[in-house]
Amino acid sequence: MVKLMQEYPAGNWLTAMAVSALLAGTGSSSEDREPSFHFAHDIAPVLARLGCSAAECHGGATGKGGFKLSLFSSNPEADFAAITQEFESRRVDYVSPGRSLFLRKPTRDSGLKHGGGRVLKTKDPAFEALKNWIASGTPWETGEPLELTSLRLKLVENRARVTADFETESGEIIERDVTEMTMLESTNGGVASITESGEINIEGPGEAWILARYGHLNARLPVLSSFGKKSNSPKKSEHPLDRAWLSRLEKLGLPAAESASDAVLRRRLTIDLLGRPPGPLEVGKPVDVDAAFQSGEFAETWAKHVASWFEVPISERDPRNSSEAHTALRAFFQKSVAEGDSIAQIASRILLENSPGRAWKRFSDPRDRAEFVGRSMLGIRLGCARCHNHPLDRWKQDEHLAFSAFFSDDRPNPNGGAMMMTGQFFEPETGNLIEPALLPLPAGNAPDTASRKDVLAWFILKNPKHDLFARNIANRTFAALFGQPLVDSPDDHRLSNPAVHEPVLDLLTNTLIEVDYDLRELIRFIVTSDFYKLASSPNSDRHQKLGDAPKKYMAHQTARRLSADEFRRAVGFVTGVKVNHPLPPESPLAEQLYVLNSGLIQKALTTPGNQVDAIFDFGFDPAQQLEDLYRLILSRPPTDEEKAAFLPELKDAKDPRQRGRDLAFALLASREFGSVR
C-alpha cells in the first residue's frame, strides 16, 4: 500500500471557501488527487473538540435548548441530520452562512443567549471551517471516499502531534496531521497538563497519560516525571517481572521496599494458593509451590477465582441464582482446575460445548450473552452500545447487534431429523434479520469451514491479531495475587483506561500466551518474583515522605482484607470446626461489626473439640500455650511485647481455657488475621 501525507497547517485548517478547496492547502503529495471531505472526519471532530457534543451540553441524553448531538459526536449521521434537516433547516443559512443560528449561538452574536456561553469567536479557525462548510452547501461527503483506519499520538518537541490514517477504495493509505481537530486531555493534570494546541507541561512527579480522541478512534501516550533523584535501589533481579517493575520505579525515582518477612510471605503465599492460613506444622517451613498446585485446596481456591471471573454468583449472596445450573457451573470450574485444564480450554468449553460449563447460557437474550462474553473473556464493556454508540470506546450499535447474533439459540430443522439449524437474531425494534459479524478488532484468517461458534472461539482465543483474552486473564490473575488489578476495572480494557503499570501487564500477557494459557505456570511466574515478595507497608523515610505515591506506583505491596469467604474459611481452619455461619458482609465497616457481634467466632470457639481448647486442655505451660495459640491463629510466634502483655494473664487465670478463648477471639477479630499483608 502507498502512504501519502496530507497535513492541516497549524491555525489554518479547513479555511477554503468551497468544498472543492477544503483540503486544497493541505500539502497533498499527489497533485492529481481530488481533495476529499467527510462530515465525520472534518466537521464532527470540531464539534467534539469545542465541547458542543459533551454530556453537559448538546451531547446529553436530551440535548440542550432543543438541539441534541450524539455524545462526543459518536454518531455523525445523527448529528448531520440534526444540524442540516431539523426544524426545516433553520439552524443553517445558506445565503449568509456567517448568520447561521448554528454559528450565532456559540459566538453570542448580537447578544444571542447561549447556555454554554461563548465557545467560538469569529476569528477562530473552527468558525471559519464551519462557515465554509455551510457556504459549500453542508455536504455529507465529497471527493474520493476515505475510511479512518488508525490514529497515532507522538511527542514532538514537548508537543503532542496526532496523525490519522485514511484508506482509499484502492487500498492506499493517506496520513493527515489532525492535531488541531483532536480532543486532547491528560489523565492526571497534577502530573502533566496539555493545551489545546498540544503543548505538554509537566506539573508534578508521577505518571500521566495523554489521551487523544478523533472520530471513533483513540490513542494514548505516557508521560513520566521523576519524584526526585534517580532511584539507587539495591534490588537487582534476573526475573523478567522484576526487571519490568524495577525499570519503571527507577524512571520514577522511587526506591523499592524491602521484602516481607518469611512469616508474612509464608502466610500470604499459603492464603493465595490454598485459600487458608498455614497450619501450625507449616509455620517455619517454606511453601512447596508444586505440592500446592497438586492439592485439592488449590483447585477449590482457584476454581472460585475463575468462577468469579465468569460472574458465577455465590448462592448465599444471591439466592435467585442458587439453582441447579449454577451449582453445576461451579462444579465444572472445580473439575477443570483440578484436572489442570488451561484457562483457554475452559473458555473454549464455555463457548462451544453443550455442557454445564456453558456459562453464557445463563442469559436468555443474545445481547446479554454477547455483553457477558465481552466482559468475562475480552475484558471489554459492550453494554453502552446497546442503546447508542459507545462514547468512550470504539463500539457502535450495529456492531453490538451483529456480535450478539452469534449467540442466538439454534432452532429446529423444518426438514426434520435430529440436526438443529443455526439460530437467527432479529433486531428487537425493527424485526430485521441481523447477520452475525465479529467485533471490529484486528483479525487474521478464520477457518473457512468452521461453524459460527468455532469462528467465535477462534476470534476470542486464537486470533493472532489481538491479545485481549490473555490481557484480561493476566490482569485478573494479578488482582487475585496482589489484591488490586492493573487495569481498573478488570472488564474495561480500553485505550482511555490504561493499566497502572502497562509494561508489567504486557509482560504477564505475553507470558500467559507463551505457557499456553496454563494458569498454574502464570501463578508460578508471579509468586517467584521479588515483586510479589515485597513488604506491604512503607519501610523507609523516603516512602513515608512521598505519601501515597509508593503505593500507587507499586513500590511496595498493599495489604488486602480477606474476602468474606476466605475469612469464614480461615476461622474454620484454625479452630478445626466446620463453620456454617452466613457469610460476612463485603463492606469493611459492616464486616468488622459482623465479626464482633454475629457470633461467627464465638460459635467456633465454643464448639466442643476445637483446636483452641485443645491447646489449654493438653498443655500446662502458659508460655508454650501462648506460643501455640499465636502459631495457630497468626502463623507466627508472639513478639516480646505480646509475651509481656499476655503471658501474665494466662499465668494468673483461674480458668485458663476461658482466658485462652478470650485471647483467641481478640486475635481472630484482629486486623492482622483478617488481612493478607
Main traits of this protein?
three-stranded antiparallel beta sheet; single chain; four-stranded mixed beta sheet; 39% helix; 677 residues; 27 helices; alpha+beta; disordered N terminus
Descriptive overview:
- The protein is an alpha+beta fold and 677 residues long.
- Among the domains are: 37-142, no CATH class; 360-464, no CATH class; 468-527, no CATH class; 561-676.
- Helix content is 39%, strand content 11%.
- The chain is built from 27 helices and 17 strands.
- The strands form seven sheets. Strands 1-6-5-4 form a four-stranded mixed beta sheet, with no helix packed on it.
- Strand 14 and strand 15 (433-434) form a beta hairpin.
- The relative contact order is 0.07.
- The model is unreliable at 1-31 (pLDDT under 50).
The class by helix and strand makeup works out as alpha+beta
- The proportion of residues forming helix, as a percent range, comes to 25-40%
Largest sheet: 4 strands, mixed
What do the pLDDT scores average to? 86
Q: How many strands appear in the DSSP assignment?
A: 17
Instruction: Report the C-alpha radius of gyration, rounded.
Output: 31 Å
Question: Which regions are unreliable across 5 or more consecutive residues at pLDDT < 50?
Answer: 1-31
Shape: elongated
Distance between the termini: 55 Å
In which order are the strands of the major sheet placed?
Answer: 1-6-5-4
Number of helical elements = 27
Strand share of the residues? 5-15%
Summed up:
The chain has 677 residues and is an alpha+beta fold. 39% of the residues lie in helices and 11% in strands.
Furnish the topology, listing elements before pairings.
Blueprint: E1 3-7, E2 37-38, H1 39-42, H2 44-50, H3 76-84, H4 86-89, H5 101-107, H6 125-135, E3 141-142, E4 147-156, E5 159-167, E6 173-177, E7 183-186, E8 192-194, E9 200-202, E10 206-214, E11 217-225, H7 240-252, H8 262-274, H9 289-293, H10 296-309, H11 324-338, H12 343-352, H13 366-378, H14 397-404, E12 411-412, E13 420-421, E14 425-426, E15 433-434, H15 452-462, H16 468-482, H17 502-514, H18 519-527, H19 541-545, H20 549-552, E16 560-561, H21 564-575, H22 588-597, H23 600-606, H24 611-618, H25 622-634, H26 640-651, H27 656-668, E17 675-676
Parallel strand pairs: 1-6
Antiparallel strand pairs: 2-3, 4-5, 5-6, 7-10, 8-9, 10-11, 12-13, 14-15, 16-17
Helix pairs in contact: 7-17, 10-11, 12-15, 13-14, 16-17, 16-18, 21-23, 23-27, 24-25, 24-27, 25-27, 26-27
